[in-house]
Design brief:
Number of strands: 3
Distance between the termini: 20 Å
Strand content: 35-45%
Order of helices and strands: EEHE
Helix content: 10-25%
Number of helices: 1
Low-confidence stretches: none
Largest sheet: 3 strands, antiparallel
Shape: elongated
């Protein structure tokens, strides 16, 4: 079983061009992206980074 880590997800509103950042607790990058798209389906994921501990 994988351990959860903190990822920083950068996403953009394609309508207005605004960029947002959110810290997400997930086991991998795909899960972190999935959490954002589940909450904000219109947003475009720009980057995902692992937060160093």
């Amino acid at each position: 079983m994988e351990q959860e880590q903190i990822f920083i997800v950068e996403y953009e509103c394609p309508l207005y061009g605004s960029v947002f950042y959110r810290n997400v607790s997930a086991t991998n990058m795909e899960e972190a992206c999935g959490q954002i798209t589940a909450m904000q389906p219109d947003m475009m994921i720009r980057a995902v980074s692992l937060l160093p501990i």
